[in-house]
Amino acid sequence: MIVQPDLEFIKSLKEAGGDTLKKCYQCATCSVMCPLSKEGKPFPRKEMIWAQWGMKDQLLNDPDVFLCHQCGDCTANCPRGAKPGDVLSAIRSYAYTFYGWPKPLAKLASSAKGLPMMIGIPVVIIFIMWLLAGATHIPSKEQFANIGYTNFFGHWEFKWYAKNIFFIVLIMVPSLGLGLFSAFMGVKKMWSTMAKQAGVTNSFRPSAVQFTKEFLWPSLVEIIKHNRFNECGTHLDRVRGHLPLMLSFIGLFIVTLWSLLKQDVLGLIWPSLHGPLPLMDPFKLLANVSAIALLFGIVVLWNNRKKAEAELDTQATFYDWFLIWEITAVGVTGLGAELLRWGGMPTLGYIIYFLHLVSVMMLFLYLPYTKLAHLVYRTTAYAFEKYRESQFVKAE
Amino acid sequence: MTDEQSTTGAVLVVGGGISGLTAALEAAEVGKDVFLVEKGASFGGRVAQLNQYFPKLCPPSCGLEINFRRVRDNRRIRTYSMTTVKSVSGAQGNYEVTLETAPRYVNSNCTACGDCSAACPDERDNDFNFGMDKTKAAYLPHEMAFPRRYVIDKNALSAAGAEAVKSACKYDAIDLDMQAQTRTINVASIVWATGWTPYDATKMENLKFGQSQSIVTNMMIERMAAPSGPTGGKIVRPGDDKEIESIAFVQCAGSRDENHLEYCSHICCMATFKQMSYVREQYPDAKIYVFYIDLRTPGKYEKFREARMADENATFIKGKVADIAIEADGSVTVTAENALTAEKISQQVDMAVLATGMQPNFAIEQAPADLQIDSNGFVISDPNSAMISAGCAKKAADVVTCTQSSTAAALKAIQVSRR
To answer: Which is an annotated GO molecular function term of this record (chain B) (predicted)?
Structure first.
């Protein structure tokens, strides 16, 4: 076997938190210590040597890289301080950039150098939209108490579809659309390379229904229940943060869907449905509970990360911190805007609401390139693992 | 310069194992006065505990006996067993050292007849055999103990036991009121040959040492294989004395590991190859599994490895054992990933041998003098202060390397004591 080391690849791993990877001397303690590694061909020892040798293709085709939850048990027991858990995290970071589309955007989201641009793009877009909407004035206290942020992008008399909603949809739907499309492209590419690597021929292919029923749905159930995460030893604490955070995202997703249905579909029939939700509305309650769960979760994860950096000498990387900052920003601005509305402070409220829109747009836009991409890539790897073990592949 | 012992420019050798004996003899045989102190009840150190030792697989009687004889015959060497260094003051060329000798409760009248031991009703754990058997509270440290004199473990001795041993002794050798004795000596240079202790295997929680009788250390195997050992030379599973059908050697148990000993102990691979021979002699068909990271066969030992690896019933797996599970039938299952095939392997065996490394004693206890000690506890020789290290106090090594470094240390000690 001729190994063609990709030096750029090794360098980028070192920057993304895998600076210890060259310390590995292949004792394989990690593969036995890993609570998630299955019988048969375990990880992360083989990934460590592939990474040392710069064997990029092997790693990008390897579902195990994405099945790692960075429990830290391998890192805690590593006799050399090679931190396999951190190295695998760095490989994932590289993979998200590699599979990302369009490339320039993926590249932009891969390092702290891109941060001003990453913030600048949504700031400019939303500000221009705000100017275009022609609603460039801050409401009085009385107005603000009544309408909240529902006239942020102004108001028109076309009662079937609110102007505000029109602009929010105009901004957010293409952002999310781009994010989801890019994620889909990446996942598709990853699946086909993994299938090729695993020697899967396509003589028996599952239908979409079979795929969902046999592979995707069981994976989602496992993820939501945190089955694998709960096997972790060293970083088990992260479950306390990740679980509420994930549930809050699901909660907010439901609220958003309902809001979309209510404002954009039902609103066309019953125009009175436009406007902010009353405080005791079940969806509003869900939204508020989710917001608090989100903030609680992110505080736990923030602290865990700080603790790992202090005690386990984990490298502080842009890849890890961007997502923590991003989610904190969404939570703080969202809840902040709501509190300022109750407090009757329109000017500050508008600024915070503006920042909330910016942070949400960033979440959508950069979903497939930043750490949030684990949402789609890890889920895909779960499904692929089940597929690989299924009769569809085994029967061949 | 003359002191109360009329010694001038004398050398103190701390530690009476193979390295200390060698350094003391080399210095004395060229005419230096030597003080040789040993904290144990007998000289001989770790070599005395081995069944066979490298390079020629001699029993320890082979090398130790001749050395003991040379020491006995050399009037320039003063030996102190059960003695530790309490403090060192002064400077190179003129050190004042305080020694403390712990009470042996047996005086020099002892002829090692063994009557006290026979009469003694009390027992103690035998640390020489790593607790695998017991001795009487009045005991001879080991078969070839030097000085050949009994010792009493007063903590293990009952009142009735005290009466029994005293009345059994025909030579009035037992003195249960003996006190610790302090003496001061003046020396020009000090050789530290303080040796090593097997790394505490209970510290590797995943290897579960101490939780099953089937998990033993490599030094315990040496004692089992030794004719004078707890099983009379038979390698069997402690506890149920089961004969061995399968055995796993767990290399680097706590070595080359920054959470334990960060260095390679140099000789554990060779010890395992040697112990494979012990097992093979007793059990021609036993399955032997060796789990390793790298097989290190320093110096001339490569042929030794080749011969052991040709064994058809031996399997070598490149992968460190990271988990040992205790089975209900008394056996254990060791788990590793074979890095050559990338497959996880779980192997059930009758006995697992942890190849634990050497920890220098100054990593465990405070040095009694101002020495240069590295982060692992090894003593760094400093000729300027006439503090010289030798043997495993200097670095983890086999016996040959130790005797070489001890000869070198003796030469250095002589040179600096003449300045």
So the answer is: oxidoreductase activity
